[in-house]
Specification:
Elements: E1 4-5, H1 17-21, E2 26-33, E3 36-43, E4 49-55, E5 61-63, E6 83-86, E7 89-93, E8 100-104, E9 110-111, E10 117-125, E11 130-137, E12 145-152, E13 159-163, E14 168-174, E15 180-186, E16 197-203, E17 209-214, E18 223-228, E19 234-238, E20 245-249, E21 260-261, E22 268-274, E23 279-286, E24 289-296, E25 302-309, E26 311-317, E27 322-328, E28 331-339, E29 342-347, E30 363-369, E31 373-380, E32 387-388, E33 397-401, H2 415-421, E34 426-431, H3 440-443, H4 453-467, E35 476-481, H5 483-494, E36 500-504, H6 510-516, H7 524-528, H8 536-542, E37 555-560, H9 569-580, E38 585-590, H10 600-618
Parallel strand pairs: 1-32, 33-34, 33-35, 35-36, 36-37, 37-38
Antiparallel strand pairs: 2-3, 3-4, 4-5, 6-7, 7-8, 8-9, 10-11, 11-12, 12-13, 14-15, 15-16, 16-17, 18-19, 19-20, 20-21, 22-23, 23-24, 24-25, 26-27, 27-28, 28-29, 30-31, 31-34
Helix pairs in contact: 4-5
């Protein structure tokens, strides 16, 4: 097939913003109850709402909740598992009022909790006719209060606090005999990946609290995902020795029992489930690749199953089958079924169809940064079967920075990336120092260096790609959301590598964020930067708003007006400052959107606006009927 020679960025592409977001669904929170698989699916056709489904024997999704409600929790603002199925009853958290609703035998949903309370990660304590849930109480003044509660399933609005006194509670799991519940707690200023405490509540025969046992631990350790096996052993993931790996306690109800390491490998376990008394199925990452494996719980032997994935999690075990969610570079998140050592994809949610000839496959790279250090990323070259760039030219680059900031990106099919590469852009998706998946030591490199090492890494990544001849160093943009938005703004303020930037709900003033963000992250900056206000001078120095005179590159700001995590004032401040400095900028707001856009129409507008913006900055006219973004300077409209 002949290729048309055209300037990078101008290529016509079938991958449009509308084709991405009008059919872009996603599955999450897989759960097995009575060998039946349940899951949540965000539906573009329901304007981004989360709907609960079950999968029947022919692998057809059966809808269980109305498309008019959204099955979604707001505990910690980000939420967690928002539903529970037990017997013939379904319990779910409804997004708008955060009450728990019960559906019994396909009846009308009935609220069983009161306003002002939020819930997640509920489990069924059938022996005592109650739910055990993580609760967040917003009825008072000041910070909401997180507790572990028991909810009476026969009497509405009757709850008992089982545990209180720590800043956060998560991940309850009930023992097979119903006599104990394991859960995780932590205190400010820690985050759940910093230092957490595993606890066990022992119950009497009547379901009353007998005692609370703390699992012993030396120093800071992040413990997550406690899970009882059928024989009563308690398993969990912990990074006692740098890597999140599998541990267990044989008699968790007794005091002073030292955990035993099950798996001794330098890998990061993302998800697991106990298959039986002898084996567990795990999903783990290693140097950016993800694997499914079976672990012998007695010997610690691990055997990989099948090919490498881009991501895998939400492992759920039925009697003779294991389900999990996974993705690849050519396939978005889907549900897989594992039987013995063979797996198959059984459910793929709706998504854009991308022909192979338009699909850019990621190249995993690592590059030098800092002082004899390295960082990681995925490089996506331009790919379009109908077009090629002009001779002796190189493509423009978009650097993509993940949020978190200690989360990570992976090589999963991302139609949003293919939107750019099919138009002639290269994309570099960065895992800067501090990203998850490379061990605790690497993750801790961001503390207390946020705004330094991440900015250094995205800049050095560009320089390395330019030195390898992959990109046009004079046409480099940076984009990111939330924490990635902060890195975007900081890179423009503290480096001269980038010629344009796009901030999705990014942070411009760290001091304001420290004073008015939500509880979950209200002390996160103590770790990332230092305590506030004691270190106010450092906050001021690293805030892009205070170095706005250094920002000379055009900037596009996209912001949800209902954002409680990074409030709109963060975007407004820097927009007004840049406008006063006569820098080309645009500020686009979205009503009804919080921290992350969910409505298809808003996502379409955001992506098309970004394309128009880059066209104006880099001097090309995008293909297609793209509405032009109006850039504003002081004194202009």
């Amino acid at each position: 097939m002949s290729h048309t020679t055209a300037a990078y960025g101008t290529w016509e592409s079938p991958i449009t913003a509308a084709s991405i977001f009008e059919v872009s669904d996603n599955v999450s929170y897989l759960t097995v109850e009575n060998n039946q698989l349940y899951f949540v699916e965000s539906k573009a056709s329901a304007n981004g709402k989360n709907v609960l489904f079950k999968l029947n024997e022919s692998n057809t999704a059966i809808q269980l909740t109305s498309s008019k409600v959204s099955v979604r929790s707001r505990v910690h603002e980000y939420g967690g598992r928002p539903y529970l199925v037990t017997g013939e009853d379904i319990y779910y958290s409804e997004f708008t009022d955060q009450k728990i609703y019960r559906i019994s035998q396909n009846g009308t949903p009935q609220a069983i909790t009161s306003p002002g309370l939020r819930y997640m990660e509920c489990i069924a304590d059938q022996k005592n006719n109650r739910l055990i849930c993580v609760r967040e109480d917003h009825r008072g003044i000041g910070e909401p209060i997180n507790t572990l509660v028991a909810i009476n399933v026969h009497e509405a609005n009757k709850e008992t606090i089982l545990f209180e006194g720590t800043d956060f509670v998560s991940a309850p799991h009930l023992s097979p005999n119903g006599k104990s519940v394991a859960f995780v707690t932590w205190l400010h200023p820690n985050m759940p990946w910093d230092d957490t405490q595993l606890r066990v509540i022992n119950f009497s025969e009547e379901g009353l609290i007998e005692c609370v046992v703390e699992v012993p631990q030396d120093g800071n350790v992040s413990i997550k995902h406690p899970h009882y096996s059928k024989n009563g052993m308690l398993y969990f993931i912990a990074d006692y020795e740098d890597w999140w790996t599998l541990y267990r306690i044989e008699n968790p109800s007794e005091k002073q029992k030292k955990p035993q390491k099950v798996l001794d490998k330098k890998i990061e376990i993302n998800s697991y489930s106990i298959e039986n008394d002898d084996y567990a199925i795990i999903a783990y990452s290693e140097q950016g690749s993800v694997h499914i494996a079976r672990v012998n719980l007695v010997t610690g032997e691990m055997i990989n199953i099948g090919d490498v994935f881009s991501s895998a999690d939400s492992i759920s075990v039925a009697s003779d089958t294991v389900y999990f969610r996974a993705s690849t570079p050519s396939s978005g998140n889907a549900i897989y079924k594992l039987t013995d050592n063979n797996y198959e994809k059984i459910y793929q949610p709706n998504g854009p169809e991308i022909e192979k000839s338009f699909l850019s496959l990621p190249q995993s790279v690592k590059f030098p940064t800092g002082i004899d250090e390295i960082a990681y990323g995925f490089y996506y070259p331009p790919q379009n079967s109908n077009f090629t760039g002009a001779k002796d030219t190189s493509p423009p680059l978009i650097v993509k920075v993940h949020g978190g900031p200690v989360s990570a990106t992976d090589s999963s099919l991302n139609p949003g990336i293919q939107f750019w590469t099919s138009r002639g852009f290269a994309v570099f998706d960065v895992n800067h120092r501090g990203s998850t998946g490379y061990g605790r030591t690497f993750r801790k490199k961001l503390y207390p260096n946020w705004g330094i090492v991440d900015v250094e890494d995205v800049s050095n990544g560009v320089k390395w790609l330019a030195s390898e001849g992959f990109i046009d160093a004079d046409k480099v943009a940076i984009r990111g959301g939330s924490a990635g938005g902060y890195t975007t703004l900081a890179a423009l303020a503290f480096q001269n590598v980038f010629k344009a930037g796009t901030s999705y709900y990014g942070i411009s003033d760290l001091g304001i964020l420290a004073r008015d963000t939500h509880k979950f992250e209200s002390r996160y900056l103590d770790q990332l930067i230092g305590p506030y206000p004691e270190m106010k001078s450092v906050y001021d120095r690293r805030s892009p708003i205070n170095s706005v005179e250094n920002i000379t590159a055009p900037l596009l700001l996209l912001q949800g007006l209902d954002d409680k995590v990074v409030p709109p004032n963060q975007s407004e401040l820097i927009f007004n400052a840049l406008k006063d400095n006569s820098i080309d900028t645009a500020y686009i707001t979205f009503e009804g959107e919080g921290h992350g856009f969910r409505q298809p129409a808003n996502n379409i507008k955001a992506l098309n606006s970004e394309l128009s913006f880059y066209g104006q900055v880099f001097g090309f006219v995008p293909a297609g009927n793209i509405e032009e973004v109006q850039l504003t300077r002081c004194g202009s409209e």
